[in-house]
Amino acid sequence: MTSLRASLRAMPAFRDATPQDLPRAAALSARIGWNQLPADWRVFLDQGAVRVLDDGDAACLAASAATLPCGADLAWVSMVLVRPDRRREGLATQLMRWAIDHAARPCLMLDATPAGREVYRRLGFEDVFGFARWSLPQALQPGAATRPMEEADWDWVLALDRAAFGAPRPALLRGFARRLPQAALVTPDRSGFVLARDGLRAPQIGPVVARDEGQALSLLAAARAALGTSAVIDLADSATTIAASIAAAGGESLRPFTRMARGRVPSAKPEQNFVFAGPEFG
Questions:
Q1: How many domains does the chain have?
Q2: CA separation (Å) from 25 to 95, 161, 260?
Q3: Are residues 258 and 157 in the same domain?
Protein backbone atom coordinates (compact mmCIF):
# COMPACT_ATOMS: atom_id res chain seq x y z
CA MET A 1 0.00 0.00 0.00
CA THR A 2 2.82 2.41 0.87
CA SER A 3 4.49 1.66 -2.47
CA LEU A 4 1.22 2.29 -4.36
CA ARG A 5 0.69 5.65 -2.65
CA ALA A 6 4.26 6.70 -3.46
CA SER A 7 3.73 5.72 -7.10
CA LEU A 8 0.52 7.71 -7.37
CA ARG A 9 2.17 10.79 -5.89
CA ALA A 10 5.06 10.44 -8.34
CA MET A 11 2.61 10.91 -11.24
CA PRO A 12 0.43 13.92 -10.33
CA ALA A 13 -2.72 14.21 -12.43
CA PHE A 14 -2.79 17.92 -13.17
CA ARG A 15 -5.89 19.21 -14.95
CA ASP A 16 -7.53 22.45 -16.03
CA ALA A 17 -9.55 24.16 -13.31
CA THR A 18 -13.32 24.55 -13.53
CA PRO A 19 -15.71 27.00 -11.82
CA GLN A 20 -16.54 24.26 -9.32
CA ASP A 21 -12.90 24.41 -8.14
CA LEU A 22 -13.09 28.06 -7.05
CA PRO A 23 -13.96 27.45 -3.37
CA ARG A 24 -11.15 24.92 -2.92
CA ALA A 25 -8.72 27.12 -4.87
CA ALA A 26 -9.54 30.01 -2.54
CA ALA A 27 -9.07 27.64 0.40
CA LEU A 28 -5.58 26.80 -0.92
CA SER A 29 -4.47 30.43 -1.10
CA ALA A 30 -6.04 31.10 2.31
CA ARG A 31 -4.21 28.13 3.88
CA ILE A 32 -0.91 29.53 2.64
CA GLY A 33 -1.72 32.94 4.10
CA TRP A 34 -2.55 34.95 0.98
CA ASN A 35 -5.30 37.49 0.44
CA GLN A 36 -7.20 36.18 -2.59
CA LEU A 37 -10.96 35.74 -2.82
CA PRO A 38 -12.82 33.45 -5.25
CA ALA A 39 -13.33 36.58 -7.40
CA ASP A 40 -9.55 36.78 -7.93
CA TRP A 41 -9.39 33.16 -9.04
CA ARG A 42 -12.35 33.82 -11.33
CA VAL A 43 -10.24 36.38 -13.22
CA PHE A 44 -7.89 33.61 -14.33
CA LEU A 45 -10.72 31.31 -15.36
CA ASP A 46 -12.39 34.08 -17.39
CA GLN A 47 -9.33 35.78 -18.86
CA GLY A 48 -6.52 33.24 -18.66
CA ALA A 49 -5.95 29.66 -17.53
CA VAL A 50 -5.59 27.75 -14.26
CA ARG A 51 -3.95 24.35 -13.79
CA VAL A 52 -4.57 22.42 -10.58
CA LEU A 53 -3.78 19.22 -8.76
CA ASP A 54 -6.81 17.70 -7.04
CA ASP A 55 -5.80 14.88 -4.71
CA GLY A 56 -9.27 14.32 -3.30
CA ASP A 57 -9.08 16.67 -0.32
CA ALA A 58 -12.65 17.90 -0.01
CA ALA A 59 -11.62 21.23 1.50
CA CYS A 60 -8.58 22.34 -0.45
CA LEU A 61 -6.79 21.74 -3.75
CA ALA A 62 -3.27 20.34 -3.55
CA ALA A 63 -1.51 22.71 -5.96
CA SER A 64 -2.16 25.34 -8.61
CA ALA A 65 -0.70 27.71 -11.19
CA ALA A 66 -2.30 30.36 -13.39
CA THR A 67 -1.47 32.42 -16.46
CA LEU A 68 -3.02 35.71 -17.54
CA PRO A 69 -2.33 37.06 -21.04
CA CYS A 70 -1.73 40.81 -21.28
CA GLY A 71 -1.83 41.55 -25.00
CA ALA A 72 0.28 39.79 -27.60
CA ASP A 73 3.70 40.20 -25.98
CA LEU A 74 3.28 39.50 -22.26
CA ALA A 75 1.70 36.91 -20.01
CA TRP A 76 1.56 37.04 -16.23
CA VAL A 77 2.29 33.88 -14.23
CA SER A 78 0.93 33.53 -10.71
CA MET A 79 -0.88 31.45 -8.10
CA VAL A 80 1.94 28.88 -8.10
CA LEU A 81 0.82 27.38 -4.80
CA VAL A 82 1.38 24.02 -3.13
CA ARG A 83 -0.46 22.86 -0.02
CA PRO A 84 2.06 22.46 2.83
CA ASP A 85 1.64 18.67 3.10
CA ARG A 86 2.43 18.26 -0.64
CA ARG A 87 5.61 20.33 -0.75
CA ARG A 88 9.04 18.98 -1.75
CA GLU A 89 7.51 16.81 -4.48
CA GLY A 90 8.52 19.03 -7.41
CA LEU A 91 4.92 20.15 -8.00
CA ALA A 92 5.73 23.86 -8.28
CA THR A 93 8.42 23.21 -10.88
CA GLN A 94 6.09 21.03 -12.95
CA LEU A 95 3.37 23.66 -12.80
CA MET A 96 5.82 26.38 -13.81
CA ARG A 97 6.87 24.36 -16.84
CA TRP A 98 3.20 24.09 -17.80
CA ALA A 99 2.82 27.86 -17.41
CA ILE A 100 5.86 28.59 -19.57
CA ASP A 101 4.62 26.30 -22.34
CA HIS A 102 0.98 27.38 -22.10
CA ALA A 103 1.50 31.15 -22.01
CA ALA A 104 3.30 31.24 -25.36
CA ARG A 105 4.33 34.91 -25.18
CA PRO A 106 7.68 36.60 -25.92
CA CYS A 107 7.86 37.60 -22.27
CA LEU A 108 6.62 35.99 -19.07
CA MET A 109 6.62 37.94 -15.82
CA LEU A 110 5.84 37.14 -12.21
CA ASP A 111 6.29 38.46 -8.70
CA ALA A 112 8.35 36.13 -6.53
CA THR A 113 8.61 35.60 -2.79
CA PRO A 114 12.17 35.03 -1.53
CA ALA A 115 11.51 31.27 -1.41
CA GLY A 116 10.06 31.14 -4.92
CA ARG A 117 12.74 33.35 -6.46
CA GLU A 118 15.35 30.59 -6.58
CA VAL A 119 12.91 28.18 -8.24
CA TYR A 120 12.13 30.74 -10.93
CA ARG A 121 15.77 31.61 -11.50
CA ARG A 122 16.45 27.97 -12.38
CA LEU A 123 13.72 28.22 -15.00
CA GLY A 124 15.25 31.23 -16.73
CA PHE A 125 13.59 34.15 -14.92
CA GLU A 126 15.72 37.17 -14.06
CA ASP A 127 15.26 39.95 -11.51
CA VAL A 128 13.71 43.21 -12.73
CA PHE A 129 13.12 45.17 -9.50
CA GLY A 130 11.99 44.77 -5.91
CA PHE A 131 8.93 45.86 -3.98
CA ALA A 132 7.28 45.17 -0.65
CA ARG A 133 3.84 44.55 0.83
CA TRP A 134 2.89 47.32 3.27
CA SER A 135 0.07 47.88 5.69
CA LEU A 136 -1.51 51.27 5.04
CA PRO A 137 -2.29 53.35 8.14
CA GLN A 138 -5.43 55.40 8.62
CA ALA A 139 -3.46 58.53 9.48
CA LEU A 140 -2.43 59.30 5.88
CA GLN A 141 -3.66 62.75 4.91
CA PRO A 142 -4.89 63.37 1.34
CA GLY A 143 -2.97 66.09 -0.47
CA ALA A 144 -3.73 66.92 -4.10
CA ALA A 145 -7.35 66.80 -5.23
CA THR A 146 -8.94 63.63 -6.55
CA ARG A 147 -12.40 62.77 -7.86
CA PRO A 148 -14.38 59.57 -8.54
CA MET A 149 -13.54 57.77 -11.77
CA GLU A 150 -16.19 58.07 -14.48
CA GLU A 151 -16.85 56.00 -17.58
CA ALA A 152 -15.42 58.80 -19.74
CA ASP A 153 -12.07 58.44 -17.92
CA TRP A 154 -11.36 54.91 -19.00
CA ASP A 155 -9.62 55.71 -22.29
CA TRP A 156 -6.90 57.80 -20.67
CA VAL A 157 -6.71 55.63 -17.52
CA LEU A 158 -6.06 52.51 -19.60
CA ALA A 159 -3.54 54.38 -21.74
CA LEU A 160 -1.65 55.52 -18.62
CA ASP A 161 -1.65 52.02 -17.19
CA ARG A 162 -0.50 50.44 -20.44
CA ALA A 163 2.41 52.87 -20.67
CA ALA A 164 3.43 52.29 -17.04
CA PHE A 165 2.87 48.52 -16.88
CA GLY A 166 4.02 47.78 -20.41
CA ALA A 167 0.98 45.85 -21.67
CA PRO A 168 -2.82 46.23 -21.91
CA ARG A 169 -5.10 44.81 -19.20
CA PRO A 170 -8.47 46.58 -19.57
CA ALA A 171 -10.71 43.75 -18.35
CA LEU A 172 -8.65 43.34 -15.17
CA LEU A 173 -8.75 47.02 -14.23
CA ARG A 174 -12.43 47.46 -15.05
CA GLY A 175 -13.13 44.47 -12.83
CA PHE A 176 -11.27 46.11 -9.93
CA ALA A 177 -13.35 49.27 -10.33
CA ARG A 178 -16.57 47.27 -10.13
CA ARG A 179 -15.44 45.52 -6.95
CA LEU A 180 -14.61 48.67 -4.95
CA PRO A 181 -15.98 51.62 -6.93
CA GLN A 182 -15.59 54.05 -4.01
CA ALA A 183 -11.81 53.69 -4.25
CA ALA A 184 -11.62 54.15 -8.05
CA LEU A 185 -10.27 57.71 -8.14
CA VAL A 186 -8.46 59.97 -10.61
CA THR A 187 -6.68 63.30 -10.56
CA PRO A 188 -8.56 66.15 -12.25
CA ASP A 189 -5.63 66.83 -14.61
CA ARG A 190 -5.73 63.23 -15.92
CA SER A 191 -2.20 62.40 -14.83
CA GLY A 192 -2.92 59.75 -12.21
CA PHE A 193 -5.39 57.16 -10.93
CA VAL A 194 -5.89 54.56 -8.21
CA LEU A 195 -7.98 51.38 -8.03
CA ALA A 196 -8.58 48.82 -5.29
CA ARG A 197 -10.22 45.45 -4.73
CA ASP A 198 -11.55 43.49 -1.80
CA GLY A 199 -9.45 40.77 -0.20
CA LEU A 200 -9.75 37.92 2.28
CA ARG A 201 -7.78 39.67 5.01
CA ALA A 202 -7.90 43.31 3.88
CA PRO A 203 -8.68 45.36 0.78
CA GLN A 204 -5.71 45.84 -1.54
CA ILE A 205 -5.13 49.27 -3.07
CA GLY A 206 -3.43 49.27 -6.47
CA PRO A 207 -2.44 49.91 -9.08
CA VAL A 208 -1.49 53.53 -8.55
CA VAL A 209 -0.09 55.29 -11.60
CA ALA A 210 0.92 58.91 -11.06
CA ARG A 211 3.14 61.75 -12.19
CA ASP A 212 5.33 61.68 -9.07
CA GLU A 213 5.49 60.34 -5.52
CA GLY A 214 3.56 63.24 -4.04
CA GLN A 215 0.64 62.68 -6.35
CA ALA A 216 0.78 58.92 -5.79
CA LEU A 217 0.67 59.44 -2.02
CA SER A 218 -2.38 61.69 -2.37
CA LEU A 219 -4.16 59.03 -4.42
CA LEU A 220 -3.27 56.37 -1.83
CA ALA A 221 -4.55 58.52 1.02
CA ALA A 222 -7.80 59.32 -0.80
CA ALA A 223 -8.45 55.64 -1.60
CA ARG A 224 -7.66 54.62 1.99
CA ALA A 225 -10.09 57.27 3.29
CA ALA A 226 -12.77 56.13 0.83
CA LEU A 227 -12.46 52.54 2.05
CA GLY A 228 -12.62 53.50 5.71
CA THR A 229 -10.79 50.37 6.79
CA SER A 230 -7.29 48.94 6.98
CA ALA A 231 -5.71 48.10 3.65
CA VAL A 232 -2.52 46.76 2.09
CA ILE A 233 -0.43 47.93 -0.85
CA ASP A 234 2.50 46.61 -2.87
CA LEU A 235 4.95 49.51 -3.06
CA ALA A 236 7.98 49.80 -5.35
CA ASP A 237 11.28 49.82 -3.45
CA SER A 238 12.23 52.94 -5.43
CA ALA A 239 9.31 54.89 -3.90
CA THR A 240 11.31 55.88 -0.83
CA THR A 241 9.40 59.09 -0.12
CA ILE A 242 6.08 57.24 -0.02
CA ALA A 243 7.60 54.50 2.16
CA ALA A 244 8.92 57.08 4.63
CA SER A 245 5.53 58.81 4.82
CA ILE A 246 3.69 55.53 5.40
CA ALA A 247 6.18 54.40 8.05
CA ALA A 248 5.96 57.76 9.85
CA ALA A 249 2.18 57.43 9.97
CA GLY A 250 2.35 53.94 11.50
CA GLY A 251 2.42 51.69 8.43
CA GLU A 252 4.64 48.62 8.32
CA SER A 253 6.61 46.79 5.65
CA LEU A 254 5.35 43.20 5.83
CA ARG A 255 7.25 41.12 3.25
CA PRO A 256 9.52 41.56 0.20
CA PHE A 257 8.92 40.50 -3.40
CA THR A 258 10.98 40.51 -6.59
CA ARG A 259 9.49 41.15 -10.02
CA MET A 260 11.07 38.72 -12.48
CA ALA A 261 10.94 38.24 -16.24
CA ARG A 262 11.72 35.52 -18.75
CA GLY A 263 12.25 36.83 -22.26
CA ARG A 264 12.13 40.31 -23.77
CA VAL A 265 10.53 42.74 -21.31
CA PRO A 266 8.02 45.08 -23.01
CA SER A 267 8.77 48.79 -22.95
CA ALA A 268 7.26 50.34 -19.82
CA LYS A 269 7.49 53.28 -17.44
CA PRO A 270 7.82 51.58 -14.04
CA GLU A 271 8.86 54.88 -12.49
CA GLN A 272 5.20 55.97 -12.80
CA ASN A 273 3.75 52.71 -11.46
CA PHE A 274 4.32 53.36 -7.75
CA VAL A 275 1.88 50.78 -6.37
CA PHE A 276 1.15 47.48 -8.10
CA ALA A 277 -2.02 45.46 -8.60
CA GLY A 278 -0.69 42.59 -6.48
CA PRO A 279 1.68 39.65 -7.06
CA GLU A 280 -1.11 37.69 -8.72
CA PHE A 281 -1.82 40.41 -11.31
CA GLY A 282 1.31 42.53 -11.70
A1: 2
A2: 15, 29, 24
A3: yes
